[in-house]
Amino acid sequence: MSANIEDLKSELTTMVEAANDLDSLETVRVSALGKKGKITAQMKTLGKMDPEERKTKGAALNLLKDEIAALIATQEAALKKQALEQRLSTEKIDVSLPVRPKAKGKIHPISQTMEELNAIFASMGFTIAEGPDIEDDWHNFTALNFPPGHPAREMHDTFYLPDDPNEQGEAAKKLLRTHTSTVQIRAMQEQGVPIKIIVMGRTYRSDYDITHTPMFHQCEALYIDKNIHMGHLKGCVLDFTRAYFGIDDLPVQFRPSFFPFTEPSAEMDIGCSRKDGGLKIGAGDDWLEIGGCGMVHPNVIKNCGLDPDEYQGFALGFGIERMAMLKYGIPDLRTFFENDIRWLQHYGFDPLDRPNRATGS
Ligand code: DAH
To answer: Does the pLDDT at position 248 exceed 60?
Structure first.
């Protein structure tokens, strides 16, 4: 090894050994092996040498490079070990400290209301059915007796998905379901009749104000068998609203209405009274609309491949948020989906709470 390589070696060795933390070791590494480092600078002089000298000096420089790199690696390992030991000796965990209090979770009023409704309808013999949020035009509209171009389609403010080139035709058009009535069709096709189901889930419409959010939840009930009539429908509405609100004499009235998938169709109201801007649910001098219902239209039954002369029944549907707002006094629908932990602490439920299931349980 030539004298100046020997000098360089001892200079770099001293520098590496003097580095007493990882940052200064990195500075040394760059100044020795980096692009503008000392060994690199020496390497660059090789080109101007004659071949014999280049051969010996090149080999010596490569050796030096390896030695310094190895030295840096050893020093790095030693510094890391030292740093870890220092951390371990200074950091202490006091295992006797109490656990940091975490924000306590609450059950969202939507989940709570769904559970209450599930329990009530289950006690009346309804089973749970489900369907997809992304639907096609046929299940959301056509099969429910909304023919293409029917004005009632426009009332739904539908979110359509971009056309899928694989699936042609108006009926295959994909959308976000605008109501849970879609599951009437799916359930009748899959399970046949007689059928007695409830459906709860997300629904979507392009609308936003104090009483509308683009995503909301609906509950739907369907009961099809032989000889089902409006008396059964009224009894069902009476029983479930009384159980849900925990009011034994809650009155219910039907008002004539129109839905393409029911005939006759009705709006369901429950009794209430209003005083000084306040609303009280129960027998009173006023009425409050809670949802729609009716006898399932023969075309709907036919569209599911079933015989409407043999089977008929009723369906009803309502908004779950609205039911929660009425029972628990929540004034603004939009707050349900703002994810404000203070709102949830206030309106949410403890996991083992069973707020008045009253007559429902
Ligand atoms: N699907 C209706 C809507 O979203 C609600 C509804 C009305 C459902 C009448 C029903 C029914 O099952 O019979 O506005």
So the answer is: yes
Cα(125)–Cα(75) distance, integer angstroms: 76
CATH number for the domain whose boundaries are 109-347: 3.30.930.10
The closest residue, in CA terms, to atom 5 on ligand 1 is 317
Q: Which residues of 82-105 are buried (b: 16+ CB within 10 A; e: fewer)?
A: eeeeeeeeeeeeeeeeeeeeeeee
Q: What is the mean pLDDT of residues 279-293?
A: 96
- Ligand 1 pocket check: which of 141, 153, 158, 181 to mutate, most ligand atoms within 8 Å of Cβ? 181
pLDDT number for residue 79: 94
Residue 359 DSSP label: G
> Does residue 355 carry a pLDDT above 80?
no
CA-CA-CA-CA torsion sign (152, 158, 162, 166): negative
Nearest CA to 244 among 98, 77, 119, 351? 119
| Residues 143, 311: Cα–Cα separation, whole Å | 17
CA 316 – ligand 1 centroid, Å: 6
Mutate-to-test residue for ligand 1 from 140, 145, 179, 224, highest number of ligand atoms within 8 A of CB: 179
Say how many Å lie between the CA of residue 354 and the centre of ligand 1.
29
How many whole angstroms from 96 Cα to the centroid of ligand 1?
A: 58
Q: Where are the domains of the chain?
A: 3-90, 109-347
The upper half-sphere exposure of residue 97, i.e. CA atoms within 13 Å in the direction of its Cβ, equals 7
Check: CB of residue 273 under 8 Å from CB of residue 285. Answer: yes
Chain centroid to CA 183: how far? 20
**Bigger pLDDT: 195 vs 87:** 195
Read off the pLDDT of residues 47-80 as tens digits, 9 standing for 90 and up. 888 989 889 898 999 999 999 999 999 999 999 9
Residue type, 84: L
Distance 3 CA to ligand 1 centre (A): 95
Among 236, 293, 322, which residue has the most ligand 1 atoms within 8 Å of its CB, making it the best to mutate? 293
Mean pLDDT (the chain) is 92
Q: Ligand 1 — pocket residues by CB below 6 A?
A: 179, 181, 220, 259, 262, 292-294, 315-317
